[in-house]
Amino acid sequence: MCGIVAYVGEQKAYPIIIKGLQRLEYRGYDSAGVALLENKSIEILKQAGKVSDLESYAANKNTNGHIGIGHTRWATHGVPNEINAHPHNSGDGKLAIIHNGIIENYDSLKKALQEKGHQFESDTDTEVLIHLIEDIKNHENCSLFEAVRLVLNEVIGAYAIVVIEKGTTDEFIAARKGSPLVIGVGEGEYFVASDASPIIEYTRNVVYLEDGEIARINKSEELDIKTISNVKKTPYIHELELSLDSIEKGGFSSFMLKEIFEQPKSIIDTLRGRINPTTKEITLGGILNYEQKIINADRIIIVACGTSWHAGLIGEYLFEDLSRISVEVEYASEFRYRNPIINKNDVVLAISQSGETADSLAALELAKEKGATLLGICNVVGSSIPRLTHAGSYTHAGPEIGVASTKAFTTQIIVLALMAIKMAHKKGTITISKYHEIITELELIPEKIEKILKKNDQIEKIAEKFKNATNFLYLGRGYNFPVALEGALKLKEISYIHAEGYPAAEMKHGPIALIDDNMPIVVIATKKGNYDKVVSNIQEVKARGGRLIAIVTEGDKTVKELADYCIEVPDSFDGLSPLLTNIPLQLLSYHIALMRGCNVDMPRNLAKSVTVE
Ligand code: M6R
Predict the structure, then answer these.
(1) CATH of the domain at 502
(2) Which of 62, 514, 526, 576 is the most core-located residue (most Cβ within 10 A)?
(3) Which of 245, 279, 304 corresponds to the end of one domain?
């Protein structure tokens, strides 16, 4: 969480930093700040609130300087106010820092510094870091580069940092461990950011700093990179493939709406080149050499968080149903701390849009120590999970900027389906005709989603009826149980309405007590799967006065007679139905949130990329 941007070169730094922070605002948006270096002084401007609040505040301030650092914050230590906003100064005011991550031993470091006379203004761990750099620099009488390196050997935790020094207008120091950092390499200029989006319009050449590396970035010199244990590294320049269009709203009122409507295209992009048009053979290049390992694995353990965890559950159903491989789905945050049994013959598969989620990364590290095979399904190319795993497949959803995950979820299901179908085919656990039937259905998904998206107005009208509800229950069975969980998560995170997802049959073991004539219940009741059983569950709800919104298969008659509102989706193979049933739920949450005046792209307290525990 938190977004960081830095610039050094011949251009004016401030506009580049502000534009970059706006692109990174999905990472945190409770305060923002910049530090600009001109001649011999450091000008720090910061504000509580969004980057636009900082912009208004800075409108009549001095924003000159050709070197600067900027930060948009998601608070961890200290409330989101101006004092706790980054950048933070050293005690003597000669240094300034921006930081993304958490310094876990900041308290003991702070106490030791206080005993030496350091005084702190903020409640942040970051201010401790810059005071420590100042302290070591003065004590060792060394360069800033060396002081930062020495300090990073003392801190425990995660960081991506950039440090500037008064009087040094041609260079700064950057380092990372556990939080991402990309360096853009221009002609006589460098850019640093938490991801490539602030850099893309200036240069396509980037260097991904590795964990435990530190860089001296001087506008007139080659990058000088070493590890924090002082081993010189040679930078490897990657060429970015990201397009500028893909990170803009393209005529939509929000990124979330754009991303919901982009799903047919994202799915086509994710399928592209992976199904042979003639033989219908599936090829996932990234896991080609690991297919036998997956087939022979004792278990696949899926580790993920949030929406990606819901995709993992659908993956479990697909792998077990089609390829008869045993799967466990774990919350990465629980898995990493519960002393799990992991064997060499296990395949641990992390699913993550960002590829940077701290708990998922830690779960993989643990599995690595135990000798398991590590796989990843990620959206962000070059992020930490793909770099840590032995093999994996990208989702190709394109950048997902709305904090609420939509197209990442559908494309994760696509990759999981491709993997499960491929393994089933290879193992012979499905017939050839079943294989071809599923592939045909898979290829039809984008046009079926287009059809559902045309129901946007109908869904908006339903949203109008329920916008003032205070609780929602989402029910589903089989493949559509995880869709119920995801529907509930989407509603609560963007509209702040309490919502719970439940397996429909479990309702009678508790949640049924909640049902009265005020309680909206969203039920997924598509024809395949446990249709008759779900119909019985619907009757149980109806008998208690619940208000029902049902997602049904086109042409359904039975549920239509029972439910207050029905949204039809095209028929499909049961295992692929979540790709369809999930779309109306995304739109329902979107419209309800909008009608309640919520910011759908930047819901309160959340951040897109959770790089802290
Ligand atoms: O980047 P990841 O997929 O690892 O992120 C996992 C969760 O933080 C994420 O899915 C979160 O739950 C979203 N806000 C859901 O919309």
Answers:
(1) 3.40.50.10490
(2) 526
(3) 245
Residue 607, phi then psi, degrees to nearest 5: -145, 155
Predicted local distance difference test score (pLDDT) of residue 486: 98
**What number of residues does the chain have?**
613
Q: How many domains does the chain have?
A: 3
Over 80: is that where the pLDDT of 612 sits?
no
In-domain check, residue 607? no
Q: What is the residue range of 337's domain?
A: 250-452
**Active site positions, annotated:** 2, 608
Please give the Cα distance from 270 to 256 (Å, whole number): 19
As a whole number of angstroms, the distance between CA 568 and CA 566 comes to: 6
Write down the pLDDT at residue 277: 92
Percentage of residues in the chain with pLDDT exceeding 70?
100
**pLDDT for residue 250:** 80
Mean pLDDT of the chain: 94
Closest ligand 1 atom to the C-alpha of 403? 14
If asked whether residues 140 and 239 sit together in one domain, one would say yes
Instruction: Tell me which residue of 254, 210, 251, 250 sits closest to 231, measured CA to CA.
Output: 210
489, 564: one domain? yes
Mutate to test the pocket of ligand 1, among 29, 254, 307, 314 (most ligand atoms within 8 A of CB): 307
- Residue of the CA atom closest to atom 7 of ligand 1: 306
For the cut 80, the answer to whether the pLDDT of residue 42 exceeds it is yes
Handedness of CA 416, 422, 428, 430 (dihedral sign): positive
Same domain, 210 and 274: no
Distances (CA, A) of 435 to 193, 314, 426: 44, 18, 11
- Residues with CB under 6 Å of ligand 1 are 305-308, 352-354, 357, 360, 403-405, 493, 606, 609-610
**pLDDT surpassing 80 at residue 58:** yes
| pLDDT classification of 249: cutoffs 50, 70, 90 | confident
Please indicate, yes or no, whether residues 321 and 186 belong to a single structural domain of this protein: no
| Final residue before a domain boundary, out of 215, 230, 245 | 245
**Does residue 302 contact residue 430 with C-beta atoms inside 8 Å?**
no
- 241 and 299, same structural domain? no
Contact 527, 556 (CB under 8 A): yes
98 and 43 in one domain? yes
